[in-house]
Amino acid sequence: MKAKYDILGIGNAIVDVVAAVDDQFLARHDMHKGAMHLIDTDRADTLYSSMPPGKESSGGSVANSCAVAAALGARVAYVGKVADDQLGSVFRHDITAAGVTFLTPPLRSGAPTARCLILVTPDGQRTMNTYLGACIALDAADVDVDLVSEATVTYLEGYLFDPPAAQAAFYKAASAAHQTGRQVALSLSDAFCVHRHRDAFKKFVADHVDILFANESEITALYETNSFEEASELARKAVALAALTRSERGSIIVRGADTVAVPATATPVVDTTGAGDAYAAGFLASMTQGKSLFECGSIGSAAAAQVITHYGARPGPEALSLIRDLSKP
Amino acid sequence: MKAKYDILGIGNAIVDVVAAVDDQFLARHDMHKGAMHLIDTDRADTLYSSMPPGKESSGGSVANSCAVAAALGARVAYVGKVADDQLGSVFRHDITAAGVTFLTPPLRSGAPTARCLILVTPDGQRTMNTYLGACIALDAADVDVDLVSEATVTYLEGYLFDPPAAQAAFYKAASAAHQTGRQVALSLSDAFCVHRHRDAFKKFVADHVDILFANESEITALYETNSFEEASELARKAVALAALTRSERGSIIVRGADTVAVPATATPVVDTTGAGDAYAAGFLASMTQGKSLFECGSIGSAAAAQVITHYGARPGPEALSLIRDLSKP
Q1: Which ipTM did the prediction report?
Q2: Looking at the partner chain, which of B54, B67, B85 has a beta carbon nearest the beta carbon of A94?
Q3: Domains in chain A, CATH or no CATH each
């Protein structure tokens, strides 16, 4: 069956609140720079009160990838849970306006839409604090197996292992994809997320993942090694294809006996939020368009470069038009 | 009595949704480029659905001025009406985090927090569509005369003439300020707003305003003339001090017999939203610090220049630190 969508993303539907802080702010609030911390409502309130003024925009790792992939011309659908509130409307508007099909019904009279307080330090690194809110309510019932069967690749984020009911959605989607001959891609999301769920991740990767995205700290955390080379060889054995990113050192793509090294696209760094998401978007959009591994990685790097030159996880208007140009032959 | 605040701002408390569009989008939706249009909920829904993805941040003309003035070291308080909802919390957080005292209680179980859909065209001009929401509920009871008497300048926005109950707040504040020997400043806000309320504006300006801010199209709209020179002479007679801005041509300040011309600060234009607000902030903060008219205008121009180099009405993190530097001797 010809696929209706190139990519179906399933992830935590989150609105980001981005503000710039100094390193002392992170230390004062016991944060690990570059990591994603799960926070409860009390911590969210305390942290928000002490933060500088912010800008809000739609986020969520896989949702970011979906928005960028759509800008690159891919046909994209998304599954994620927002609440029936103002931030939920913002999320729905933005992902729809980005050209992504988003049909998941909102959560009514439950937790509010998830938000992530993102603190960007002067070195461009982002430190995230996620209040999962309505994402906790995403469950297997939200995964439509027909939708999964209509997508060439179903792309999942490792963060979905945090809300317990979402894991069931995760497995249901993977199994539906494989039953209809489709592919499953996974992003490991965050080294601390890998630590929280290492055994479950290793099993899921080995049993269900065709395409794995991870950065250096995530893949070494998964395989509990300090050696990137060792981790990439383990990934080579575990999955059909792994795209492993190393910030300014570019990415290494391993597929069977092939190893392809792709340089990073040099660019001034303002805020690294969304860089990995944009890389995966460029990679998957290119892959579903039949491009070579080197092209997939290069368009991934170029999309990431556009995202890190401004505050926020999704490309702004100028970046979006540059990203659209990337997909032109 | 020594003032506790340098500036008390009273205005419409609004959250902005900023997106980039082309000129055709404005034409298709019958908008006048550069103007502020008042819209109802239906129009807000229709317009939002057809807009590209946006970024949300706190706005409102006088609220923007308050945030910039606080960054310049002024002691600032603000009165405005948000609802008890997510966008209201965003507004409250941002203005408080900017260092502004904001005590107005939120509206409960009424209209939602006001929002302004701001469309930025490639020439950097912004076209605004405001759904007034909870701002409609701002009334004279929200103006604390003691607070007014504690501020050197009470700064009002012309937009307050749109929500009917706010006009009463406007008059109450002006009269309380003058009764305690304080000054009243007004921004005319928008040429279309001037058209809607011309007679009321002329009377208020002549009877109650000490310091008037207007751009060229607003001041010529007020006095129904095509000549900026004629309009500025009429302003000179009507108020003690008028600061009249002319975009890249800088500003003209008239006070009694004095006329001071201040050049604009040259800068690349990305989005002009908030330029006038930042000018007024720089001017008023400098004025309450005892600076010369030329310095007041120059710091106003420099603050405006910082705001127009990025999307959004309030300075971003880099701009904020440059603005803070402006106030250093």
Answers
A1: 0.91
A2: B54
A3: 5-11+61-102+136-326 (3.40.1190.20)
